[in-house]
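Help wanted!
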Amino acid sequence: MAVITYREALRQALAEEMERDPSVFLVGEEIGRYQGTFRVTEGLLQRFGERRVVDTPISESGIAGMAIGAAMIGLRPVAEFMTFSFALIAADQIVNHAAKILYMFGGQIRVPVVFRGPAGGGAQLSAQHSHSLESWYAHIPGLKVVTPATPADAKGLLKTAIRDDNPVIFMEHAKLYSTRGEVPEGEYTVPFGLAEVKREGRDVTLIAYSQPLLLALHAAEKLAETEGIECAVIDLRSLQPLDMDTVLRSVSKTHRAVVVHEDHRNVGFGAEIAARIQEFAFDELDAPVLRVASADVPIPYARNLERAAFPSEEDIIRAVKRVLA
Amino acid sequence: MAQVIMPKMGDGMSEGTVLRWLKKEGDTVEVGDILAEIETDKASVELPADISGKLVTIKVKEGETVPVGAVIAEVLAEGEQPQTAVPAPPEQTAPAETIAPSPAGKTLREEPPTQERVKASPLARRIAQEAGIDLAMVKGTGPGGRIVERDVQQFLASRQVAARPPIVEPTRPTEAVLETPSLTGGEPLSRMRRLIAERTTLTKQTVPHFYVTMDIDMSEAMALRERLNAALPEDAPKISVNDLVTKACALTLARFPRVNALYQNERIYPSSEIHIGIAVALPDGLIVPVLRHCERKTLRQIATETRHLVEKARAGRLTPEEYTGATFSISNLGMYGVDEFIAIINPPAVAILAVGAVQKQPVALEDDTVVVRPRMKVTISADHRALDGAVAAEFLRELKAILENPYVMVE
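Answered by r_m:
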């Protein structure tokens, strides 16, 4: 298996799907000539031409609206948001149009669009550019929400997203683009709604997705080495659809769960996971389900404060020890 | 209001019967006053009050059997106002933590409305419910005293240990499955019979017994006994043959710590303390009071204390400390004229001595002349996991040497 970056994996997925299906095209700010702010679309303009790699003005609402319209008449657009923080301007397009059209037109019109780009922060982008809004999108019926943490999943899930006949919110992470990992050779896809057990463990189940999965894995390694505490680590991979079976199976072995995400703790996705665990596995629980998440503050610019606001390995270790107390 | 609970008097006790109330409702009680007589598997004991006040309610009638920990009466402490429909103070649930549950897992406390809600994790609750445990008896070690899974598991484990006789899980007395005409009527086993049935069945099934018999010339021992007794004051207890055997065993055991040993969980525990159990027949069963520290007792002390223990045993008044902890036992059927017999070991001890009657027997001497001498046969039953035949034989040879030269016993 080849070892490539998360960024390269996304690029391969885009290129392969564009080769496979002529209705697939890319649209976004600085994706063509500039080759993408995070270099995901590097080389694609040269390879596929201006009709399929479309640079736009700075207008997220316009990008989203154009993509939705194109999808409604049968194309498969992949719209890039420079970051998902900017997608707030396109919220009406995404929530009121993309997510509702199939329903409003009585199932006659599908919207096979992918909205992709980095979510989250951690690179001193400050309060307005560091949002993790996956719980907002997961809240909306009609949207699928995908949050890959590894290069292999980035590629396999993006291909599935492009082939899906419904709008998909595909959330990458700025801190993941340069991470490397093995990616299967040749054609493959990763299905939605299938969580992956990244590490087996008997003591506590750590549930994570996107970049914090790496934090959870590091914390699990450290706990195993220094304390002999064995954490199971589950990567949810997609939040909508959500694979609770894998989570509940693990919790029924460990009887303790900690959810880790970068989004704010208050009404974050961890609340949904915790609620479902207590709803469906109440009698398995030996401790309350805890959440490790960002502080409920605007994400600070200052490096030290940003670090303090984001979840850390130490936070996870503390939470694990708390549920084991 | 203080609750009087069925006390746990010995490891094996899971329930007790109130034989008799010595105080009645409304009586004033002082600390130490005997409230009731309680019958356990093995004995009846007196239950003293541990608080002064007024005996308000008696909850268990005479003759009624309740699990250990059950509330049998309530005492209103001095100065305390009677409460009506007010919940009992929460600290009264505290003593329950150390109390073993009834085997049936019934709730011991009978007043759920007066209890504080027990803090427990959902998993702990589920396991407790499945195992029939009252969570009020489990001590929580989680955050804020929450009962978590490990607490219930530990409680379950300790309950199994407590319920387990020293060797393995008790089995019901197995009855031979034979074609027999169906019997009608019959008497249910008394508590003591049931216990004897369970313990002896278990012991015979799990302890590999072997037996070694020795014939002992008792001429010198009988002569010594006669002379010692003649010198005793009129009212002093006379020294019996059994006392001589006990003393001789104590001297021998001091030289054979491996015979004076306990066997448990694949480990042998030789003991320097010598606690000899003396089997005493009762109208419906038997009990083995224990003469403690025989290594320090003179023949006369052994005689006096044995007499005292036997009387208490026959009156059913032994305390649990007085019938547990034997490191060796003696069962003597000599008074019935028995030649010899074999006894069942009393675990976790590894040996027991069965003593026959002293009887006149013709004996061939070295020079082939035949004489008549008082002889006694003893048979040691030994646990082959801990002892071998040669050790048992050496033990008996030493015992025989002492009894045939009994003056070492009065040194």
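OP: Thanks! One thing I noticed: The mean pLDDT of chain A is 96.
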